[in-house]
């Protein structure tokens, strides 16, 4: 895949992450045992969190970015960090998982820094489910938790003074200033680690969620019948406790996820709490180091037809029509903040990714 294609994926994802959304939503990710949710909270007037899941034929990655309060353009920084991270994961899909995460975090940092010059930034936490295992990466203070054998364990490292000194969350004199973040420029050192598959579930959380008492968090997740219900309840508890910040999280079951890799459907699928399941008609192979003839082959580029659907399993059983067809509008599933059920809300625009001949002149500067 050439650099132009990568940049266009990033631009399209950035636009998608910056679209208007409702103040709160929870979504179960299709047939995959991952659920994501995000809520503006009770105090903030803007949601600067971005959480999303990307599924390729050979891997699944969940990412959460939290724009930094007190700095400029927190929302844009979080959106750009998430978009760049996911685009790099796609581009380097044939690279070993650890190197892929290292590159994705570094390129996300460079992308945010190039636009905001260190005056804005975001945290980043992600879990990658790959044929070689499960791996995590974090920069900043968004967290990765795992539950197993009746215990809640923080796997990530907080890039704060508290985190460096390994002080407890209940420290009476906390030092929560970030010492590194996505967008800081040179010297960034992402924390990358392997995760064992025996955990019952894993979580990505922004700081609007993980200030909840850890025993309460564990109890809510363990007693919920499904992950989407756990996500909704944790968000509501965060709001009941004051809702002082945006609250976002993802919950995944690693044992089931591993069994669902390598479906060879030949599509890229992307979700967030507010958007419909996106299926991009594509056959993306190789990475930026591929031979030129591969990157220019028409079969390796995204086609200019993007369908937004509600039930991808039905679509995959049918032969795609050769005639260009207008994408069908569907209503996303948005959880009601007052119940544990799922209601319908406003329609959301489809994600469109074109690799050539479709970018406006001004779009290249996004």
Strand content: 15-25%
Distance between the termini: 21 Å
Globally, the shape reads globular
Number of domains: 1
How many E strands?
16
Give the helix level as a range of percent.
25-40%
Q: Give the C-level CATH assignment.
A: Alpha Beta
How would a textbook summarize the main sheet?
Answer: 8 strands, antiparallel
What's the multimeric state?
single chain
Count helical runs: 9
CATH topology: Phosphatase 2c, domain 1
**CATH superfamily descriptor:** PPM-type phosphatase domain
Question: Which descriptors apply to this entry?
Answer:
eight-stranded antiparallel β-sheet, globular, alpha+beta, six-stranded antiparallel β-sheet, 366 residues, 27% helix, single chain, Phosphatase 2c, domain 1, disordered C terminus
Account of the 3D structure:
The protein is of the alpha+beta class. The chain has a single domain, classed as Phosphatase 2c, domain 1 (4-Layer Sandwich). The chain has nine helices and 16 strands. It has helices spanning 3-17, 74-91, 97-116, 161-165, 214-223, 227-240, 254-259, 292-296, 312-316, and strands at residues 24-28, 34-39, 49-55, 59-67, 122-130, 133-139, 143-148, 151-154, 191-195, 201-205, 247-252, 267-271, 278-281, 306-308, 333-335, 342-344. The strands form three sheets. An eight-stranded antiparallel β-sheet has the order 9-6-5-4-3-12-13-14. A six-stranded antiparallel β-sheet has the order 1-2-11-10-7-8. Helix 1 (3-17) runs antiparallel to helix 2, helix 2 packs antiparallel against helix 3 (97-116) and helix 5 packs antiparallel against helix 6. The two termini are 21 Å apart.
């Amino acid at each position: 895949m050439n650099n132009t294609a990568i940049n266009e994926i990033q631009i399209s994802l950035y636009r998608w992450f910056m679209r208007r959304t409702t103040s709160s939503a929870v979504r179960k990710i299709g047939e995959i045992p991952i659920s994501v949710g995000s809520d503006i909270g009770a105090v903030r007037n803007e949601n600067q969190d971005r959480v999303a899941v990307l599924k390729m034929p050979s891997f699944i990655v969940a990412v959460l970015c939290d724009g930094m309060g007190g700095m400029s353009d927190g929302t844009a920084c979080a959106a750009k960090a998430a978009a760049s991270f996911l685009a790099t994961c796609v581009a380097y899909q044939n690279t070993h998982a650890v190197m892929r995460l290292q590159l994705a975090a570094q390129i996300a940092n460079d992308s945010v820094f190039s636009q905001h010059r260190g005056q804005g930034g975001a945290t980043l936490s992600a879990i990658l489910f790959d044929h070689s295992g499960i791996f995590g990466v974090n920069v900043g203070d968004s967290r990765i938790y795992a539950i197993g054998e009746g215990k809640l364990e923080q796997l990530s490292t907080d890039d704060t003074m508290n985190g460096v000194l390994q002080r407890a969350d209940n420290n009476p004199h906390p030092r929560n200033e970030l010492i590194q973040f996505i967008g800081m420029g040179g010297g960034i050192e992402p924390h990358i680690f392997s995760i064992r598959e025996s955990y019952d579930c894993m979580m990505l959380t922004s700081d609007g969620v993980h200030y909840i008492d850890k025993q309460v968090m564990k109890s809510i997740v363990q007693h919920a019948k499904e992950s989407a219900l756990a996500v909704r309840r944790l968000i509501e508890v965060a709001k009941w406790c004051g809702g002082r910040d945006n609250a976002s999280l993802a919950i995944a079951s690693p044992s089931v996820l591993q069994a669902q890799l390598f479906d060879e459907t030949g599509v890229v699928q992307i979700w967030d709490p507010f958007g419909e399941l996106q299926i991009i008609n594509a056959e993306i192979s190789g990475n930026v180091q591929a031979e030129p003839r591969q990157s220019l082959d028409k079969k390796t580029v995204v086609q200019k037809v993007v369908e937004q659907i509600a039930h991808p399993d039905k679509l995959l059983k049918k032969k795609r029509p050769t005639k260009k067809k207008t994408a069908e509008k569907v209503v996303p599933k948005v959880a009601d903040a007052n119940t544990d059920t799922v209601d319908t809300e406003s329609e959301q625009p489809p994600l469109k990714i074109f690799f050539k001949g479709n970018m406006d002149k001004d779009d290249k500067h996004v």
